[in-house]
Amino acid sequence: MTRTTAEPFTLTCPIPLMDYPRVLMAHGSGGRMMQQLIEKMFYRAFDNPELLSGHDGVTLDTGGIEAGRVVFTTDSYVIRPLFFPGGDIGSLAVFGTVNDLAMCGAKPRYLSAGFILEEGLDMETLWRVVCSMRQAADRAEVKIVTGDTKVVEKGKGDGLYINTAGIGEMIHAVHLHPRSVKPGDKVIVSGDVGRHGMAVMAQREGLSFESDLASDAAPLNHCVMTLLDAGLDIHCLRDITRGGLAAVLCEIAQSAAVQIDIDQQQIPINDTVSGACELLGLNPLYVACEGRFVAFVAPAAVEQVLEIITSFDQGKPVSIGEVTAGEAGLVTMKTIIGGQRILDMPSGELLPRIC
Amino acid sequence: MTRTTAEPFTLTCPIPLMDYPRVLMAHGSGGRMMQQLIEKMFYRAFDNPELLSGHDGVTLDTGGIEAGRVVFTTDSYVIRPLFFPGGDIGSLAVFGTVNDLAMCGAKPRYLSAGFILEEGLDMETLWRVVCSMRQAADRAEVKIVTGDTKVVEKGKGDGLYINTAGIGEMIHAVHLHPRSVKPGDKVIVSGDVGRHGMAVMAQREGLSFESDLASDAAPLNHCVMTLLDAGLDIHCLRDITRGGLAAVLCEIAQSAAVQIDIDQQQIPINDTVSGACELLGLNPLYVACEGRFVAFVAPAAVEQVLEIITSFDQGKPVSIGEVTAGEAGLVTMKTIIGGQRILDMPSGELLPRIC
After folding, report:
1. ipTM of predicted complex
2. Taking the domain B178-342, which CATH number applies?
3. Which of B23, B72, B252, B353 is most worth mutating to test chain A (most A CB atoms within 10 A of its CB)?
4. Where do you find CATH 3.30.1330.10 in chain A?
5. Domain named PurM-like C-terminal: which ranges (chains A, B) (predicted)?
6. SS3 label, residue B19
7. Of A40, A65, A289, B118, which is most buried, counting CB atoms within 10 Å of its CB?
8. Does domain B15-170 correspond to CATH entry 3.30.1330.10?
């Protein structure tokens, strides 16, 4: 079991063909310039028969998807800066939506891509993002099959926003859901937390750290599919994004009406992340990841779950605690110094536009 | 056959419950405030079991959709102003995506909704838009089943952008596509053109006309389903949006590699629209609609197609011309004064952010 690595997608920039080095309002007009942008940029990068069918929507080859097994999700991406160590808005827009499908237990199949471009955006920047999306889609084994482009005036956007919606296929008869979480379940985190948020913050604020800090952004679907293929007794999966590990645990404790007790000592946090958080006065448990998830599993399945996640080399998974009948919605943490504290949902906004 | 009219959806504004009269960055944080926004605003307005299942994605009841019959599409909406005579960004975001599915011959079933909110947006404005989306979804008979909310800093957006992606079901074994258009086909336009664009322009520029000018924005799916239920020999449908009637005809003439000849005299244009266009130096054939479509149909089907469209009371349909083998990609128009001119794809941008 090794991580799927697709051939990297490389393509020279079509800008010499594009006549315009920057995005103009007319690129969103429905006319010739929009047609040119779509054909020379999007069709070329995403290149697949469904997309090239070129109609208002696309009929999907969902032959083989059993009735009632289609999963649907959407996310918009407004991260800044557009490029950061370990990724960019394009790869994030693919992985984020792919991961949402995977967390439902679905095999991601198709994505849409809606671009909101700010007038004046460099075509080369757009091309880099679009190529990154294609590369990310290849890695996650999904296709970008339909899309849309809008242009807003300078000062009414921030370079580029992307929405992706995704369609996945439920292959296994599982019901992964917060409400399936039960007392006795073990809580597994798939790797160290907080790296994405801190990598973006460092880039944004121009901070440099002793060692390189790269985002953990990654597609989780191959790992999740392997877990499900193995038929393990898993009750819920949730990717750790906005609000960090703490928000995920609080939300699930509420939905499932259970108590969750975790042990701070067990939570894997990279030293550079810890240091950066200390410097900025942040708690890493509230900082977003983009390639980590929490799994709620029956005790008997813990060992195998840890083994499979480890084999994907996307982080070192650890069991950090367990679910009890205790008080519905409560999340407690045994601290490193031996005390106990309550973990709350974050209420303010410490790290805006992290995804 | 009458137009479907759903019970209007009314709900009092939950602002007293929301603590904050305006959108803050924290409403996009993944924390408590975002949770509150989702539960008190989106869950309340869109209210359906799929949405309320509250996971990263939603498993759809697509039982009964035959394998290989799922249609997928997306559009972002950046129109300004947010409210205009005959609609708003919310109803547009529903009808626009519903219409894209309908143009493929699909019965629209499910929508996603991705919101990009600008910090400082009035909660009441958001609520009006969200209620309008629900009302539009009821009218189109689709459900908004999954969503996402992001917040960007003041000055990095323009109040509110919405992306909707849509999933539809191919019920009929038809292949409506530009490449299915054949010489001999008649070109039918479903009603008067240019009303949406001019209504929005008038609102934006503070122009007032002698008579009220309202957008034609409307869901076209019920009309299209009735056309397909009747088993008529229809080859292609296309809604008239950005770029207007001219752009649609040029695009289809190119895709199908046919010539299209139309008769200006036959093209229905509302008098107020004509007057406003003249005033602003615009050609109504390049102005967007949001509730009109072009149908390419076999001559034998023309009469029944006109009859069915008429019965929906969404405009008076007219046959405006025909397809010939002539020159691939060419669109010619017999002018009112008896000459002939070529219709080109629009190249610049006359009416930005019309959808």
Report:
1. 0.94
2. 3.90.650.10
3. B72
4. 15-170
5. 182-329
6. coil
7. A289
8. yes
